[in-house]
Amino acid sequence: MSVYEKLRALKITLPQVTPPAAAFVPYVRAGNLLFVSGHIARKDGKPWVGKLGADLHTAQGQEAARGIAIELLATLHAATGDLNKIMRIVKLLVLVNSTPQFTEQHLVANGASELLVQVFGERGPHARSAFGIAQIPLGSCVEIELIAEIA
Amino acid sequence: MSVYEKLRALKITLPQVTPPAAAFVPYVRAGNLLFVSGHIARKDGKPWVGKLGADLHTAQGQEAARGIAIELLATLHAATGDLNKIMRIVKLLVLVNSTPQFTEQHLVANGASELLVQVFGERGPHARSAFGIAQIPLGSCVEIELIAEIA
Amino acid sequence: MSVYEKLRALKITLPQVTPPAAAFVPYVRAGNLLFVSGHIARKDGKPWVGKLGADLHTAQGQEAARGIAIELLATLHAATGDLNKIMRIVKLLVLVNSTPQFTEQHLVANGASELLVQVFGERGPHARSAFGIAQIPLGSCVEIELIAEIA
After folding, report:
1. I need a surface site. Which of A6, A121, B39, B150 has the fewest CB within 10 A?
2. Which of C135, C138, C149 is the best residue to mutate to test the A interface, defined by the most A CB atoms within 10 Å of its own CB?
3. Which class for B85: exposed (0-12), middle (13-18), buried (19 or more C-beta within 10 A)?
4. B127 → closest Cβ in A27, A99, A139
5. How many CB atoms lie under 10 A from the CB of residue C55?
6. CA distance B127 to B91
7. Do B30 and C90 touch (CB under 8 A)?
8. Which chain B positions have a beta carbon within 8 Å of C32's beta carbon?
9. What is the pTM of this model?
10. Residues of B in contact with C134 (CB under 8 A)
11. pLDDT tens digits, residue range A78-117?
């Protein structure tokens, strides 16, 4: 089953990629590695604002992380023209907007990790770091950066 | 116009690189990728201390980020011997010393991103993650890590 | 002296690697680069809980970072089958669970950096970023992510 068939089976439609209005870009390729910029959580097209441990509980954080993974897929599609060219999801950096007490960043991150494994199969399991930070641009609750390997 | 001519036009003089007095080094090359250590903001040769959202406003953070970009250029020059050998600025990781309320890390980061694009032209736009953290070594207000691709 | 002889001289026994019970994996190889997941500090087999600047002082943080470096060595051994195949420790990302006042993340990180240099000799010095964050999964005091280059 191709990546796109899996996305259809999961009823996931890739969003349009909006390039950041700034000096940076959504991704850069260097050799066979694709470095994807940090993507922030969005809901209804706006930043999904809130802090884990105060405004949002873990399940909401997971949903936010899953939503970012879908945005990352859209960016990977824009970068490659064909998601089947992705050889491997290499690494995620998962930043969770956290109070100093919240300690379930790994569970939040699973919302993204599990979707990537569902979509990419054996090319999906990745190295990962997840941790809690003081804030995220525009107050978003989660931000995820990704490295992928291309054929 | 070469990178050095652009630096002259911008009236930027590259500082001396001071290797860290520790077990780590300012950069490591692996294949065609150059991994540059996190550089902290300095002012008058000392760490530029302060927290965005409390001690410093966004414009000061941008100035600090621009200053770090100049230090990064000095390190890239030391690493390559010739900045024109840089094929691409691949990725920045921009860490902003933030209160839990400050949400303009992306604007702070632009201080570095915009200088790199001015200096490197079409080789300058990069992937990027920016976010707010609890503290930075020596109390510095911003820290930036960089990956570049070399010919 | 091989890496294993150095480990014996340092009386370091590598622990068993426990794969994370999740969608991510301890490491992914892409080309000659090995991306190793963030490893958290442990003590007596459990997360070493605490925050620098409140619960733990710098020397304890250094000990925690050194302990993580040993866990990272175990993962590198599992990834390569032979630590002597490591050409270079390329980069560490050192995340220190910090109060907003604690500013000695670089000293904490030295606990890991110095051990890696002891073990790998001239292949050990690496690029590095260290900074303070709001929290770490399971409340652990330090988390370290690593990139290595393989022959």
Report:
1. A121
2. C135
3. middle
4. A27
5. 13
6. 5
7. yes
8. 30-31
9. 0.96
10. 100, 133-134
11. 999 999 999 999 999 999 999 999 999 999 999 999 999 9
Pairing of strands B42-43, B33-40: unpaired
Picking from A151, A40, A38, the residue whose alpha carbon sits closest to that of residue A87 is A151
Q: What does the pLDDT look like over A30-86, one tens digit per residue?
A: 999 999 999 999 999 899 999 999 999 999 999 999 999 999 999 999 999 999 999
Domain A3-12+25-150 is classified in which CATH homologous superfamily?
RutC-like (3.30.1330.40)
Minimal-distance CA residue of chain B relative to A52: B100
3-class secondary structure for chain A? CCHHHHHHHCCCCCCCCCCCCCCECCEEEECCEEEEEEEECEECCEECECCECCCECHHHHHHHHHHHHHHHHHHHHHHHCCHHHEEEEEEEEEEEEECCCCCCHHHHHHHHHHHHHHHHHHHCCEEEEEEEECECHHHECEEEEEEEEEC
Kind of pairing between the strands at C27-30 and C33-40: antiparallel
Query: Are the CB atoms for C37 and C26 separated by under 8 Å?
Result: yes
What CATH class does C3-14+24-150 carry? alpha beta
Chain C residue with CA closest to A87: the answer is C30
Residue range B26-150 in CATH 3.20.20.150: no
